[in-house]
Amino acid sequence: MNAVPRTVLVVEDDDKIAALLVDYLRAGGYRPERHADGLGVVAAVQRQAPSAIILDLMLPGLDGIEVCKALRRFSSVPILMLTARVDEIDRLLGLELGADDYVCKPCSPREVMARVKALIRRAEGRVAGEPVGGGFTVDEATQRVRIGEKPLPLTPVEFRLLKTLLEQPGRVFSRDNLLDAIHEDFRDVSDRAVDTHVKNIRRKIAAVAPTLECVHSVYGVGYRFELPE
């Protein structure tokens, strides 16, 4: 019995670019669903969660930044941003937005496909979760972290960063260490993105466990995780 193809949303207003991406996705065994603007994307994800989204930054109706923000309020679906604006890269990868990866235009459809495959593989190719101590449980199968029975609403990038810290409590990770952990292609991304990620992880932990302080800054170096007693 054949597996059901994974759905990938292509949110792109340029018909030629969209058609090319759709063709490559279909040839790669995916089920592409094209949207020419950002207005219907949130509803589409709510109806049936896709495996990934290719999201253009500049869209009519609702731009890619607003679409991404809206999605991150309820979904951790992997999002690959397409942008011609290099000055937006840090913002795209900032945790307040929650994008997982980006490709700058003009781009090769083969590169886009490789990035999409990597995001899906990273999101799905996980082993079973296990407790790590201090009430934290990491479930790689669903890319979720729980504190007790309460899940943290983490994006995939947030999950990788917190998981890295959780795996070696007490170790001080530099910002470069953490960038390498969350972006495996070693791209040139500002370390300010790490600070934003950590800020948002702390906020989400505080929303679930208000008295818990476990992600600590190490001045001039980076961050460490300390298991609560």
Helix fraction by DSSP (H/I, runs of at least 4): 25-40%
CATH topology term of the largest domain: Rossmann fold
Helix and strand element order: EHEHEHEHEHEEEEHEHHEE
- Largest sheet: number of strands, sense, barrel closure: 5 strands, parallel
- Mean pLDDT, to the nearest integer, reads 81
Task: Tell me the radius of gyration.
Answer: 18 Å
Shape: elongated
How many helical elements? 8
Q: How many discrete structural domains?
A: 2
Would you tell me the structural class of the helices and strands? alpha/beta
CATH superfamily of the largest domain: Response regulator
CATH architecture assignment of the largest domain: 3-Layer(aba) Sandwich
What order do the strands of the largest sheet run in, or round the barrel if closed? Answer: 2-1-3-4-5
Mind telling me the CATH class of the largest domain? Alpha Beta
Distance between the amino and carboxyl termini: 50 Å
Q: List how many beta strands DSSP finds.
A: 12
Percent of sequence in beta strands: 15-25%
| Uncertain ranges | none
